[in-house]
Amino acid sequence: MSEMTDTDTRPRIALDAPQWRDFALCRVTDPEAFFPETGENGRPAKRVCSGCEVRDACLAEALAHDERFGIWGGLTAAERRKHYPKRHR
Ligand code: SF4
């Protein structure tokens, strides 16, 4: 029987490594609060975001993927638009 050796030196991604979403505080709250109806201010969701440890990662992902709906990283879509370069608005 031959002994198996691991000669693959490529970097590996641990598929079971925790992702920022695993720490999202909104996972344990009412998801509808994060998609306020027109005229609602989203304050309840923003309050949750203010205590969320992955807020920066969440906002960065929303900006990277141009999320048009919902509250991400404590900001509404309109508030996130201020983070984009002018040509993107
Ligand atoms: S910052 Fe993002 S991940 Fe955290 S509670 Fe708010 S929406 Fe959820």
TrEMBL record:
Q: Which coarse location class describes where this protein primarily resides?
A: cytoplasm
Species classification = Bacteria, Bacillati, Actinomycetota, Actinomycetes, Mycobacteriales
Q: Which organism is it from?
A: Rhodococcus oxybenzonivorans
Task: Kindly give the InterPro entries that the UniProt entry links to this protein.
Answer: 4FE4S_WBL (IPR034768), Whib (IPR003482)
> Its function?
Acts as a transcriptional regulator. Probably redox-responsive. The apo- but not holo-form probably binds DNA.
Q: Which UniProt keywords apply?
A: 4Fe-4S, Cytoplasm, Disulfide bond, DNA-binding, Iron, Iron-sulfur, Metal-binding, Plasmid, Transcription, Transcription regulation
Which cofactor(s) are needed, names only? [4Fe-4S] cluster
Q: Per the UniProt entry, what are the Gene Ontology biological process annotations, in alphabetical order? A: cell redox homeostasis; negative regulation of DNA-templated transcription
Details of cofactor binding? Binds 1 [4Fe-4S] cluster per subunit. Following nitrosylation of the [4Fe-4S] cluster binds 1 [4Fe-8(NO)] cluster per subunit.
Q: Which ranges carry the 4Fe-4S Wbl-type domain? A: 25-82
Similarity comment: Belongs to the WhiB family.
HAMAP family the UniProt entry points to: WhiB
What does the PTM comment of the record read? Answer: The Fe-S cluster can be nitrosylated by nitric oxide (NO).
Give GO MF terms, alphabetically.
4 iron, 4 sulfur cluster binding; dinitrosyl-iron complex binding; DNA binding; metal ion binding; protein-disulfide reductase [NAD(P)H] activity
Q: Which residues bind [4Fe-4S] cluster?
A: C26, C49, C52, C58
Pfam family of this protein, just one?
A: Whib
GO-annotated cellular components: cytoplasm
Compartment annotation: Cytoplasm
Write the protein's name.
Transcriptional regulator WhiB
Q: Which residues form the signal peptide?
A: none
